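User: Please check token order:
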Amino acid sequence: MAAEIDDLELLNKYREQAKNRLFDKLNRDTEYFENYYSDTEINELLTIAFGKNLPIDDIAGIIHQACRIRDPHYKAPISELTVRMDNIIEVRKRGFPFPFISKPQFNDYVNNKVIPTLDKFGLPKDKAYVGGSGLTSTTSLSGGTQDTDWVIYFSSKKKEQEYVNKLLDKFTEMTTTTPKVLKSGEAKKYKQGLVEDYKAKKRIHKQYIVAIENGKKINLFKDENKVQNYIVDFFGSTPTDITPKVFGDNDNIPQLKIKLE
């Protein structure tokens, strides 16, 4: 009887912590997420996860993924989310996400695609994580192509600000090259956009992450004209997204740390 009481107390504590984690994430991004599940359904999912010894971030993340607003609307049943619990346990054991079928294949992708990209754009490599539905399933709940979501963390807000300053210097540098990569007016517009967006939203928009390649400016992602650039062309048949963040500030859930050499 005492053991049962202890287990119940642990379960209740687990539920409380997981709900706090889940609702914190949902409340931070109401534009793209809403709670699809009743308290009874969430408790059932958390009880199943507790029995599988699933970390709180993993089950909160699985439910969070399922709460993304979709058109047409789709609410994943508990049975589907239970399978995703087993999937993430498998992924953590083997150390790579589902879009890949072997560790050598994943390592090849990391060494030939991810690391060169981070080096090209001057992004840090010490806190690199894979997130998204690739950790929990071979297919996306949204029905789209399964991609690989990377989060590249700065160790502090100070480090992020230093990176912003380097980007501002990069735009200035583009006006002094021979031939010039950017005209002064264009560089000023990019710098102003970066500063204003960073000040307003407290993060670096990916369109302002740039490098110079073959005498031309390249954007990590879509620029202000909504033209897809480097990340789409370079990664090709392996759809990828790379998002910079500050570690400890609304970290992704679930996520798997990947050691980059």
Q: What stands out?
A: Helices lie at 2-28, 39-51, 56-66, 78-94, 103-120, 157-173, 184-201, 230-235. The radius of gyration is 21 Å.
